[in-house]
Amino acid sequence: MAVWLEQGDIVLFQGDSITDAGRVRENGNDLGKGYALMTAAQFSAKYPEKQVKFINRGISGNRVPDLQGRWQEDCLDLKPNLVSIYIGINDTWRRFDRNDGTSTEKFKEGYRQLLDQTASTGAKLLLIEPFVLPVPEDRKLWREDLDPKITAVRELAREFGARLLCLDGLFAQASTQADSAFWAPDGVHPSAAGHALIANAWLKAVGAAE
Q1: What are phi and psi of 165, to 5 degrees?
Q2: Is-contact 86 168, C-beta < 8 A?
Q3: Residue from 170, 72, 158 nearest 108 by CA
Q4: Beta strands per DSSP E along 71-149
Q5: Separation CA 103–CA 106 (nearest Å)
Q6: Which residues form the SGNH hydrolase-type esterase domain (predicted)?
Q7: What pLDDT digit, counting tens, does each position of 91-146 carry?
Q8: CA-wise closest residue to 190 among 203, 180, 177, 178
Q9: Does residue 64 contact residue 25 with C-beta atoms inside 8 Å?
């Protein structure tokens, strides 16, 4: 697979806390401490001649409606060549901790609007499906709400010709090699090893890893 990024491309990471990963908001160049940083570091070390710029605009707690509210400023105005979107777990989580979930229909329609706006600019799209692991046990109850949203992300990837990271299966497979808590201590937020799993999968998706 040829590398999907060209000389001087701008890559935008968008999403929630997993993408945010403690980035310093006041520093527009800060990539946080998670998969976005790991991805950018590995890609840049392997392809320094491409001079690809990586930007992180993930915000902890965000859901699809939050992205809709800030998409112009935090995506379109940045004129990215590739937009990587990782959203969805909070659209499920809020149902269980605040009785304020996002229906699958609203989730998919809002997500589609984001993709419509982005695709119209000619930007490439990489979608990252949300995942959850059974840590603690009550996370198992979330599957009823999250699984349809994962399906929606997969359908949107096909609809828009986007590349897709199937994280739910990736983390389930990894959990056969080490306990689920090793990869995501609360079932949602990846450990350092979990972030590395995402970064490696991201690089493979753009043809930048063996």
Answers
A1: -105, 115
A2: no
A3: 158
A4: 82-86, 124-128
A5: 5
A6: 15-197
A7: 999 999 999 999 999 999 999 999 999 999 999 999 999 999 999 999 999 999 99
A8: 180
A9: no
Q: How many residues does the chain have?
A: 210
The answer to whether 200 touches 165, Cβ cutoff 8 Å, is no
φ, ψ for residue 5, nearest 5 deg: -110, 140
Is the pTM higher than 0.85? The answer reads yes
What is the DSSP secondary structure assignment for residue 184, as one 8-state letter?
Answer: -
State the Cα–Cα distance between residues 70 and 132, nearest whole angstrom.
26
Q: Using an 8 Å Cβ cutoff, are 102 and 94 in contact?
A: yes
Active site residues: 17, 186, 189
Rounded Cα distance, 83 and 54, in Å: 10
- What's the DSSP call for residue 78? G
The whole-angstrom separation of Cα 196 and Cα 33 is 11
Residue 22: which region, alpha, beta or left (left: phi > 0; alpha: psi -120 to 50)?
Answer: left
Closest of 208, 185, 90 to residue 134, by C-alpha: 185
CA distance 149 to 41: 30
Task: Give the closest residue to 100 by CA, choosing from 60, 145, 59.
Answer: 145
Do residues 63 and 38 make contact, with C-beta atoms less than 8 angstroms apart?
no
| DSSP H helices in 63-132 | 64-74, 89-97, 104-119
